[in-house]
Give the backbone structure.
Amino acid sequence: EEAAAGLGEGDRLLIAGFLDSRLLAALARRLRPRGVRVQLNLAPFACDYGDLWESVDLVVANRAELDIHFGTPDPRVAALRLFARGVRAVVATAGPGGAWWLEPERAFHVPAPRVAAVDTTAAGDVLAGVLAAELHRGAGPSDALRLAVHAASLAVTRPGAVPSIPSAAEIERLRRELAGGEP
């Protein structure tokens, strides 16, 4: 509540799907009129999101989470179910298969670079966080998702959760490389 008090037009709130959905729904309903974008990273277990859906701009989930919550690992089918609940966009991740951005009027796929995966712990969190940060910076969905997929791919090359998270300098290097600049 205290952190959310300072949020306003153009800000983005990334919420973890395992938190109390009633609390999150109430918070999201207060923030939406202030122009705050809400991004929900789905929980890897079944839970009831109740009224939260209508206040969510973007859902990020892997295919297993889509199956748990919507009875299908198919990103297109799950996205249609989410759109019917008021969600505006969905990012469906598939590990080495990259990720899909889905909106009612457009969809695109971002392939993942080939890497030697060591540990996938926190890869989804890295993707969700980098995606939120890039969208907040004003990047378009395609550029934001591309950087997020590459950052998550870098994360899986390292063991552990926190140690695998790319640094700000590494994210900046990835951003330059993806823009066609020098590494």
